[in-house]
Write a structure and sequence with these properties.
It is elongated and about 110 Å long. Helix 18 (about 370-395) packs across helix 19 (about 400-405). The longest helix has about 35 residues, at about 410-445. The strands form 2 sheets. Strands 1-2 form a two-stranded antiparallel ribbon. The protein has a two-stranded antiparallel sheet with strand order 3-4. The chain is built from 27 helices and 4 strands. The chain is mainly alpha-helical.
Length: about 600
């Protein structure tokens, strides 16, 4: 044991002139204060000193802790550390330099976080610091250098041979601690903290209810986390904008942070546009991009345009999803209680007769091969967009980070989302061309009187167009499902629910495509539209995506997967064959029309000429 202590002591002494790590390198070194009900941990990570992991790594412990109090073991009661004391930096070659954080105190007093302001903070849960502790601890813990790999990817700072060339001059002739300064400079070329850590630092005060109330502030950290920058940070992005990115001019000291009313502040209305257009953020954007809200908090934005847009989408969701959900639930209740469709048996006999004839089987196919291929491409793209998009909406959920990392990170996930969106827009265009070709073809058909049908009448007769009669049938269906009508209405090739879902695809794809293009190319579009349009685009994109996912994920999936008529999956979009029960109950008009064209009577099921 003695040998082990001597070996460890010799290693520690190389980077620790006072040999404090002889004891403090052990993780279990701690004491429990019964009176204060506190655990005091005295562990110091040796790697911080030995691997130069932070700016304090080259300080002796006694530069901060009075030597006369720690020179004896056990130590005397140690005074609180003052961060503005003069430090003694030991350079290579035993050159000593004096250093102090006193100038930082002067900077703080010139900014929004003056020492007086910090000393008067009252927190909801009581004091966060003990008596005479340095106020710096509100924002700072033991500082660590960020990895140089982000800005110096070709340099391996863990390999001692990396600095051999530098040591030719800087070992003796011009002694400089090259490894230390490389880490120091590389760290300062980056944000001092990763985005989430920075937000957590600001949250100490800027989410505390007592602090917010006393200073008449809103919870800026919460609204930041809900912004794109915050969500990107939650999903693992290390280069997302932080609080400091916006609230401090590029290259300036964060201790000089100024309030928005100060004309020199980076977030002053005259300066904020240039902050957004910095080289690290949106360098090609127009100044009006700054009108986009980073701290948009809809619940507190009562009366604003953004608030009413969000409210309109909520009403739209309730107005479309609500009635559809009621119909879906009532239909499942009919199945559960065993209520039989009064005309279903007769229609099922017609279906059986039609299926017995090759011509009849073709007439009962509700989807052509072309339509089935289009449907499954839509399924693939919609699923891809949902899987890659909703993690960005619910970035604060644990599963979101897991999904994004599965795809290879936020950048890859966003790229997949963007190109899937482009493919969906192209698919919509192709489908419109398909509809137009069908419309032109049907307009050229002849009526029994020998006249051409014409474009307008052909449009009304397209299978997915909702005509006034079907709106009346929808009301009749609701009355039937509520037990206020004896017979249900009959529907053709597609019922009114399917037609509304089809229209919803057109509406949703168009809106999501337009808003997605705006958000993706906001630097380009900022030269033509104000930044507030991006707020509206984000709200519309989010709420429309949510509306689409609940319609498809609940109503459509119930109808095509979990409904007893089709479980485990409707074959209509795979083989084109619709289950007999579904045809009889939901498409009886379509069956009768097919039977009539095939020469089959409903009463006898016999073929007639």
């Amino acid at each position: 044991m003695t040998a082990l202590v001597l070996v460890l002591g010799s290693v520690a002494r190389a980077s620790d002139p006072d040999n404090c790590l002889l004891c403090h390198q052990f993780r279990g070194l701690s004491r429990f204060d019964v009176d204060g009900n506190l655990a005091h941990v005295f562990f110091v990570d040796p790697s911080y000193v030995q691997q130069l992991r932070g700016p304090h790594a080259r300080l002796a412990c006694t530069d901060c802790h009075p030597r006369d109090q720690v020179a004896v073991i056990p130590h005397q009661t140690v005074s609180r550390v003052s961060c503005v004391e003069i430090c003694h930096l030991l350079e290579p070659g035993s050159t000593e330099r004096r250093f102090s954080h006193g100038n930082i105190a002067r900077m703080l007093d010139a900014g929004a976080h003056s020492l007086q302001t910090l000393s008067q903070l009252q927190f909801a849960q009581g004091p966060l610091l003990r008596d005479k502790q340095a106020l710096c601890l509100y924002c700072h813990d033991e500082p660590l250098f960020r990895s140089p790999a982000a800005v110096l990817p070709t340099i391996d700072v863990t390999d001692p041979r990396t600095f051999d060339r530098c040591e030719v001059c800087h070992a003796e002739q011009i002694p400089v601690d090259v490894a230390y300064y490389l880490r120091h400079i590389a760290a300062r070329l980056q944000q001092s903290r990763p985005p989430l850590e920075q937000a957590q630092v600001c949250a100490v005060c800027h989410t505390d209810p007592a602090v917010l109330k006393s200073h008449e502030m809103k919870d800026a950290v919460a609204s930041f986390v809900l912004s794109f920058h915050g969500k990107a940070a939650l999903l693992g992005a290390t280069n997302a904008a932080t609080c400091v990115s916006c609230h401090v001019h590029a290259g300036e000291n964060a201790h000089l942070m100024l309030g928005h009313a100060n004309e020199h502040s980076s977030v002053n209305s005259r300066n904020v546009a240039n902050v957004c257009r910095s080289a690290d953020c949106h360098p090609d954007a127009d100044p009006q991009l700054a009108a986009a809200a980073v701290h948009l908090d809809l619940p507190t934005a009562w009366g604003s345009l953004e608030f009413w847009i969000a409210a309109a989408f909520i009403i739209l969701t309730l107005g479309t999803f609500g009635p559809s959900l009621v119909l879906c639930v009532l239909e499942q209740v009919q199945i559960a209680v065993g209520r039989e469709h009064p005309h279903a048996p007769a229609v099922e006999r017609l279906v059986e007769k039609l299926l017995a004839k090759p011509e009849g089987r073709l007439r009962l196919q509700r989807f052509t091969v072309n339509q089935r291929v289009q449907h499954w491409i839509l399924v693939l793209l919609f699923t891809t967009l949902a899987i890659t998009g909703f993690p960005m909406k619910f970035a604060d959920r644990g599963w979101s980070r897991a999904v994004v990392e599965t795809f290879g990170g936020l950048h890859v996930t966003r790229t997949i989302h963007h190109w899937a969106g482009i493919a969906l827009i192209l698919g919509l265009f192709v489908h419109l061309m398909y509809c137009l070709a069908t419309l032109v073809e049907r307009s050229r058909e002849r009526t029994p009187a020998g006249r051409r049908v014409g474009l307008f009448k052909a449009l009304l007769n397209l299978p997915m167009v909702v005509n006034p009669g079907e709106l009346r049938k929808t009301c009749q269906l609701l009355l039937y499902l509520m037990g206020r009508r004896a017979e249900p209405p009959s529907f053709g090739r597609f019922n009114v629910k399917e037609k509304f879902e089809y229209i919803g695809v057109f509406w949703g794809t168009t809106l999501l495509g337009l808003t997605g293009a705006l958000l993706w190319g906001q630097q380009f579009w900022s030269h033509y539209i104000t930044g507030r349009i991006f707020n509206i685009a984000l709200i519309a994109h989010t709420y429309e995506a949510f509306l689409a996912i609940i319609h498809v994920g609940i109503l459509h999936i119930v109808n095509v997967v979990f409904s007893p008529h089709v479980f485990p999956l409707s074959r209509a979009t795979i083989t084109g064959d619709t289950p007999v029960g579904e045809l009889a109950e939901q498409h009886s008009e379509f069956v009768r029309e097919a039977a009539s064209k095939a020469g089959i009577t409903e009463s006898t099921g016999e073929v007639y000429d």
